[in-house]
Amino acid sequence: MKLSVGFATFSLWLAAAATATATLEASSLYDAASPKRYSVHAHSCDPAHPGKHCRPAHIAHQGGYSVKLAESPYQNSASNCPAPAPGGSGTINPPNAGRCHPVGATAEITSLSGPNGHIDWLNCGINGPGWSPAQVKIEDLVVVLLDSARHTTFSPCSDQIIATFKKYGQHLGIPPIILASFAMQESTCNPSAVGGAGEQGLMQITPEKCKGAPNGNCKDIDFNIRTGAEFFVATLASNGGDVFSTIGEYNGWKPGMTYGDATRAAHTCCRCQNNLDYLHQFLNGWMQGVNAYEMRLGKYHNVECP
């Protein structure tokens, strides 16, 4: 992870904020007394094809966020899973899809596509003039509940870690699976992980963000997750709610980034590159309750280093 945006005093705006200048307050949009509300909009199914996953969608409204809620691939065993269709039930359908490439979302997860779109749409422009992500909001995303894959994909995360994802997800008004997905993508949920540039812990926090860590321990689970979560929310606000740009920025992506920019360090520091499969792995792997590394999601694989 390459953290490049400084923290600001902020209040959560996810339910209604429209500008990057929103003032973030300490209070959360999440209301613990407000129950989730689900509306079923799609079928239940379980794919017949190994290595692919089909999931139905719901709409979930919880506190300060609403997202399409897809069921985990580990739930439901109905055999009547229909063929995936771009833009069909259980797939992303953003109002501002951009013009670079068709969304290409599929109910099944494949090496190149999934419920949150095709890798060429997610990476729009990277192989040309530069990354130009579609303007997608957090409520447009298709996700699964963290608990649905707690003992499968997210099994490397301890009960304490899962509880902390939920704590800060609820406090900041974002789906806890977003935080869990960052931890799996960045460190495979290893609180002792240290990156090549000194990144620390579960969320791979860069050293300059470690000020205030208890006893100087940036790997402290609560501090580490809170710091990563607050960075994500602050960046989301500064990006005007653009969730693709915000997720990409966690790996050092910037609008305008080209393939050459991302791979410039390939021959000197392989792991210092930007992971060109990052968005697909994050959005169509971890956030669907699927292990992006075991499925080897993506097409670039540029950070699979010796």
Automatic annotation (TrEMBL):
<feature type="signal peptide">
    <location>
        <begin position="1"/>
        <end position="20"/>
    </location>
</feature>
<keyword id="KW-0732">Signal</keyword>
<dbReference type="Pfam" id="PF01464">
    <property type="entry name" value="SLT"/>
</dbReference>
<dbReference type="InterPro" id="IPR023346">
    <property type="entry name" value="Lysozyme-like_dom_sf"/>
</dbReference>
<dbReference type="InterPro" id="IPR008258">
    <property type="entry name" value="Transglycosylase_SLT_dom_1"/>
</dbReference>
<protein>
    <submittedName>
        <fullName>Lysozyme-like domain-containing protein</fullName>
    </submittedName>
</protein>
<feature type="domain" description="Transglycosylase SLT">
    <location>
        <begin position="165"/>
        <end position="252"/>
    </location>
</feature>
